[in-house]
Amino acid sequence: MDAVMCGSDAAMQRDWRWTQPLLAVVVGLSFFLLFPPVGLDSRYSLLELSLVILTAVLVIFVCSRTTIRTVAVPTALAVLLVLMCFSAAWSFASWETARDALTFVVLAVVAFFIVHSARLNTILIGVAAGGLLALAGSLVLIAVAPEQAFYHTGAVQGFYGNRNGFGYVILMALPAAMAVRLAFRAGLLVKTVLVLVLAAGVVASDSKTSIFAMLLVVLVWVAAVLVRRHWGYLAALALGVIVVVAFAAVNYTRVLELLGKDPTLNGRSEIWSAVLSVVPHSLVIGFGWSRSWPAGSPHSAAVVEALGGHAVFHAHNEMLNWLVTLGGVGLLVVVALYVFVLWSGARIFRTATVEGGVWVLLASVMLIGRGFTDISETAPQGWFMLMLVAFVAAKYWSDSSTKPASGIVLLRWPQRRHAPRRGVAKEMIVSE
């Protein structure tokens, strides 16, 4: 009997070893293709792509003979997906809402199976590789056709058509590069170079939103490292941040000039004001969710009028985006999801039992931080990242606690009724 069990374990280990590189490739290509460069734009629909990715992940999952002992889904995410789908019933563009909601549901399912099939480090390698692919392709375009690779201000836009898009893609990969572990000689050096190259790419984009989010990620990473040494270092850092913020508030106009922004934040305040003016018309459930605002919808029409005929396709603020599309109910659910991933990220980092676990915290900060003045998870690539973060957080939520999570926080099947034996959580993580 023992011999049979040993043989079965050995077979599972072999399956595990060959599936990890394949999953890294799938994650990397998914990351890259979900925000396609100009040359691939409109060549495929996002729904088609998401279904292809799901098929590939399921094939790997079945062939690897992976078993999922516990299904864990953040409650806020489950509610949010239901709201997105049901909002087609009252949406201004019902077909568009149904299509986009289905696409995002499929991407959520993809993320779930990836998280339960791959090591966290495998996911990080895939995301970092996808960002490196985007950067390398853009560098090739700079060498071949520099007139297409640069924005008119001299900022790098690569093969994404605009500098904000380029900065967004490179930024998405940065937290993964910061958290990944490269287990070979000179791995730390390679990781350091990768982080510096991606950070340089974000700076080269001259996207103020992405640069701000990157600085926020670095600040949180420094704070996380310092707090492990001594709380006093964190207090000193917090004091420094307060001083800088106070100085910026006092010299607000001067700071905007240095950032190349006008008092309206390059029109963002006008967009926000116009959006807020129509929110009361459907305050509770919104006007129906979609990736981009349908032309002629109340929120789109209000912004077009405010901007003198110029159309935009999102609120340039994720909170307002969720508020206008899913109302106050949707906004509360999204905030609950934000709190879940941030708090989970802090818990996972504090326990220090999950290799690369700091990524959950850093990626959450990056996504939420960028959403202050632009879209983040509304874009398919950002949504894919948020889904990976959310399911990683759900998977490891209870590892540092003997008490099962409340159903208000996490939906689990089957429910764990007894505290795990000492060492069980550690064994689960190591067995990855």
UniProtKB/TrEMBL annotation:
Membrane topology label: Multi-pass membrane protein
GO molecular function: ligase activity
Main location: membrane
Domain O-antigen ligase-related residues, every copy: 194-334
Highest taxon, organism lineage: Bacteria
Ranges annotated as spanning the membrane: 21-38, 44-64, 71-92, 98-115, 122-145, 165-184, 196-224, 230-250, 322-344
Keywords annotated in UniProt: Ligase, Membrane, Transmembrane, Transmembrane helix
Xref: InterPro entries: O-antigen_ligase-rel_domated (IPR007016), WaaL-like (IPR051533)
Pfam families: Wzy_C
Keyword Signal annotated: no
The keyword Membrane is assigned to this record: yes
Localisation: Membrane
The protein, known as: O-antigen ligase
